[in-house]
Specification:
This protein is of the alpha/beta class. It has 21 helices and 35 strands.
Length: 797
């Protein structure tokens, strides 16, 4: 890829933080995911805020908060205004994640990071696309195209492929993918034979090292462990709390548990199964409508037998603890959130942890310091001090003060409205000068006397416009307008549908909006509660990610030229980097060393590998003097100029450093043609440009080296006497088989004899060991005709 490519991690590098990365391709900047952690740390926001004005597009991979949690804040508070791309399930389920996340915090504490309006505004800007659908960017991103590829893990999960001008090299961003086929999802298609990623190796692969050193249990063993734990607990008359996410991995668990409850051999049908979060009904309804995004088995079952796996028979949907209390005990409950820092999972843990008959099952690793991670690291812990937030009604002086403030605010709004209405009425009165106003109808003009010879027309007074419609009828009566009755019919049907719906279940046409209950004034109270953990605690992995060994094999099959590792423990990241380097550079077919980068947060990685690539500005006088030659789909020219940094230092964009260019290992290809005594010419087939630096007569500026690196230099034309000469260069990678077709079309006999193209039995064209073209023959008319045709295949500069 002959482009300037720079990568900057804003979060999730050499740690297990949320995913948020910035990728610059030439002048276009992508924001790859914008996750937020469980504590809503503003350090991440500060990192993004520095670059918010340069972001041109946002690519979202998964619907959970670890990949898009900061999106409402960026749109609502920082004014992010650029196209956002995601698949349809990521769009729908992402809203469910953020609705549930907001309500889980808002129910018990003051939460001002974002509002539901911010969520709606952010998701209104998302462009919904399908897997393997190529989107061509415009304006600033001219020549760039993006393609989402199925990545597994969660419904709609995406790995992004970014291509510039349909070149060989491409950038692939694939994190948290899963190659294993599950009950509701197929494995990722990063290297399948039918996928476009397998057709050519990517220039750069950006992937994570989260599971690099993690050993997963087999699926059968994992399912047996879950079933055994549930049966043992419920037979002992205990409840089972399973901490899950809102709308991602919970779907896999819901299908599994409902199938276990349907199996009469398990004996679980005698117990209760429930799922609780703030948007449970919408999550299930959306899942029912997105069968085409799921596994082949589910699609075939739905197509042939109309069986929808999310038409649950035993799983009861609950939206609050009141609904859950009506479910008979003992019961198994899927509760959000997965980190147990907020939501119903935390509330149920506080209620159930002191009973030794109960069990708590954590299904995913979360950030360190969260309640779920604490239980994973120490499942035998016996005592915990938890921060508990809850809302309590205002009483006494606090309630009186709140009422006074609300009354004053209401009075202020009323007064403001009255003032605005008064101003509008004054303007209307002033806009009608000379108008006579009376309480009863009088004529404004004095009566005119006439001679009485001619009949005078009656003067009509001003009236409201009214056109009397004449009724049409026939022998059967008045004609009926069907539209009048159709409207009433539709209204009656809508009322019947609304009346038939359960009151607690909202419509699924639009995402459920959680209503804030402000009828009773409340305040948030924080307390430290010590709880005794007597229940059993287990960690059963249902994360749905590829393990380290499988990730290594996938990277080997993709065969990237460069790799950037993000989001992982420092030790695991380093070991994974060493494994990739050893694997990719030790193969028999490896022609050049594959470099693996492990950047830290805010560390810029420049992966530009082509030679002589600079980011510069050209003055108008220089552009007017250029003479371009066409080479395939591009135009190239030879450039002689001097570098001027005085104007470029005003800009903040970054350029490729000369040191990094010198260290590039890319080799230039050469061709040699017999051009009237010219011996040998060096050609860079990608860019034919050179810049001659001249000493400035002005006094050198005292500017820091870092400012030079962040500046775009300007090129000024050289004077005619200062312009050096250069050898003629030929740009193209000519295939002799293609040139043979050109000769045949021109009526010249051409055939290959021992790898040499013989033309009219007088001229021989061959490629030597260095890859250069040699042309031999007598200096006849055929020689010059064939040479001219050969020159036409190149761009000559």
């Amino acid at each position: 890829m002959t482009s300037i490519i720079k990568f900057t991690p804003l979060s999730g590098a050499l740690n297990e933080g949320p995913c948020c990365y910035m990728l610059q391709v030439d002048e276009f900047t992508f924001l790859l995911d914008c996750g937020w952690d469980e504590e809503f740390d503003l350090k991440l926001i500060e990192n993004i805020k520095k670059h918010i004005s340069h972001i041109d597009a946002v690519l979202l991979s998964f619907p959970d908060a670890q990949h898009l949690g900061a999106l409402p804040y960026l749109v609502g508070h920082l004014g992010l205004n650029c196209p956002i791309y995601a698949t349809v399930p990521v769009y729908k389920m992402g809203q469910m994640f953020l609705y549930d996340l907001f309500q889980s915090h808002h129910n018990n504490r003051e939460f001002d990071q974002f509002t539901l309006d911010d969520v709606d505004t952010a998701f209104d800007r998302i462009n919904q696309i399908k897997h393997n659908q190529t989107v061509t960017l415009r304006d600033k991103g001219e020549g760039l195209s993006i393609t989402p590829v199925h990545a597994g893990h969660m419904i709609g999960g995406t790995a992004w492929k970014i291509v510039k001008d349909d070149e060989e090299g491409e950038v692939v961003y694939a994190v948290d993918f899963n190659h294993k086929r599950e009950r509701h999802l197929n494995g990722c298609s990063l290297f399948d034979s039918g996928d476009s990623l397998s057709s050519r190796p990517p220039q750069l692969l950006i992937t994570d090292a989260y599971n690099a050193a993690y050993i997963q249990a087999r699926r059968k063993l994992r399912d047996e462990q879950l079933l055994t734990k549930i049966i043992e607990t419920m037979r002992a008359d205990g409840n089972v709390l399973i901490a899950v996410d809102t709308a991602g991995r919970v779907l896999e668990l819901a299908i599994l548990l409902d199938q276990l409850w349907r199996d009469t051999r398990s004996g679980l049908h005698a117990y209760s199964l429930a799922m609780i979060n703030n948007v449970t009904y919408n999550v299930v309804e959306f899942a029912k409508s997105m069968v085409e995004w799921m596994s082949d088995k589910i699609i075939n079952s739905f197509t042939d037998q109309r069986n929808n796996p999310f038409q649950f028979k035993h799983l009861k949907l609950c939206h609050n603890l009141g609904d859950l209390a009506q479910v008979p005990q003992p019961k198994c409950v899927l509760a959000s959130t997965i980190d147990m820092q907020s939501g119903f999972s935390r509330q149920l843990f506080v209620r159930w942890c002191s009973d030794p008959r109960n069990a708590v099952i954590v299904t995913g690793r979360t950030a360190k310091g969260t309640l779920a991670r604490t239980l994973i690291d120490d499942p035998t812990i016996s005592h915990l001090n938890l921060e508990i937030y809850k809302r309590v009604p205002l009483v006494g002086e606090e309630l009186d003060q709140f009422e006074r403030q609300r009354a004053a605010k209401k009075a202020s709004e009323v007064k403001k409205f009255e003032d605005e209405s008064s101003d509008e009425s004054d303007v209307e009165d002033a806009s009608k000068p000379g108008q006579v106003q009376h309480d009863f109808l009088v004529t404004a003009d004095p009566p005119k006397k006439g001679g009485g010879f001619f009949k005078q027309a009656k003067k009509t007074y001003p009236m409201f416009p009214y056109v009397e419609q004449r009724l049409k009828w026939d022998e059967y009566g008045e004609f009926i307008n069907p539209e009048d009755y159709r409207l009433n019919e539709i209204a009656m049907l809508e009322e019947e549908v609304e009346a038939a719906k359960p009151r607690k279940l909202p419509s699924t046409d639009e995402p459920q909006e959680v209503e804030q209950q402000d009828e009773t004034p409340t305040k948030c109270v924080r307390e430290i509660l010590g709880v005794e953990v007597k229940c059993s605690v287990s960690f059963i992995d249902f994360e749905g990610r590829s393990d380290g060994e499988s990730m290594l094999k996938i990277v080997q099959q993709i065969k990237p030229r460069e790799v950037i590792l993000v989001r992982g423990d420092p030790l695991a990241t380093r070991k994974f980097s060493e494994s990739i380097t050893k694997l990719l550079n030790s193969g028999a077919g490896s022609t050049s060393a594959v470099e693996v980068f492990t950047p830290a947060v805010n560390e810029v990685v420049d992966t530009t590998k082509e030679r002589h690539i600079y980011q510069v500005k050209l003055k108008d006088s220089l552009v007017g003097s250029l003479r371009f030659s066409t080479a395939k789909d591009a135009e190239i020219c030879w450039l002689d100029a001097k570098v001027d940094y005085s104007e470029g230092l005003r800009d903040t964009a970054q350029v490729l450093s000369a040191t990094q260019i010198a260290e590039s290992t890319e080799t230039s290809r050469q061709i040699r043609l017999p051009l009237d005594g010219d011996e040998e010419m060096d050609v860079d087939e990608v860019v034919m440009a050179t810049s001659k630096s001249a000493k400035s007569e002005t006094k050198p500026l005292k500017i820091a080296e870092s400012e030079y690196k962040n500046a775009i230099p300007c090129l000024e034309p050289l004077n005619l006497e200062e312009t050096p000469g250069h050898q003629i260069c030929f740009v193209n990678e000519l295939r002799l088989s293609d040139f043979k077709q050109v000769l045949v079309k021109e009526g010249i006999q051409a055939e290959f004899i021992g790898g040499v193209l013989v033309c009219n039995n007088s001229v021989a064209i061959k490629r030597n060991q260095q890859g250069l073209i040699d042309m031999e023959g007598c200096l006849t008319e055929d020689y010059y005709v064939i040479r001219d045709l050969l020159y036409q295949q190149y761009a000559i500069v």
